[in-house]
Amino acid sequence: MTTNLSGTYATVMPLKQNNKNSKSAAARPQPFQASGNTLRSVVLMGLLVAIVPVMLGVAYLALVREPANTDSQLSEAAQSYASQGAARIHALLNRIDSRIEAAASSPLAAQALAGNDQQALDDTERTLLSFFPEASSISLVPLGEMGTATFSSGNDEARNHIELDLLRRTSRGEQAPPEAYQHEGTGLTSIARSVGGDTANQQAVMLITFNNSLLQDQLNALDIDSGQFRLEQVLPASPDRTTTVAQSGNGDLDTLSATFSVPQSQWQVTFTPSRAFSNRFVQSPVTLFAVLGLVLVAVIAGFALVLVMFPKRLVNETRKITVAADKRTSVELAIPELVPLARELRRATLRGLRRAGPETEEEKAELDSDVFADPAFGDTGSYEVLELDGQEQGGSAAENDPDFPSHIFRAYDIRGLADDELDDEMVAKIGGAIATLADEQDEQTLIVGCDGRTSSPRIKSTLIKALMSAGRDVIDIGVVPTPLLYFATRHLDCRSGVMVTGSHNPAEFNGFKVVINQQTIAAGGIADIRDRVKAGRFSKGQGRVIREDVTEAYIDEVMSDIAIAESLKIVVDAGNGATSKIGPALFEALGCEVLRLHCELDGRFPNHPPDTSDEANLEDLVATVRNTGADFGVAFDGDGDRLAVVTGTGQIVRSDTLMMVFSEDVVSRNPGADVVFDVKCSRHLAELITRCGGRPIPWKTGHAFMKEKMQETGALLGGEFSGHIFFGERWYGFDDGMYAAGRLAEILATGESTLDEALASFPSSINTPEILVPVPEAEKFRLINNLAAAGSFTLGKVSNLDGVRVDFPYGWGLVRASNTSAALTARFEADSAEELESIQQEFRTQLLAVDPELSLTF
Question: Family assignment (predicted)?
Answer without folding.
Answer: Belongs to the phosphohexose mutase family.
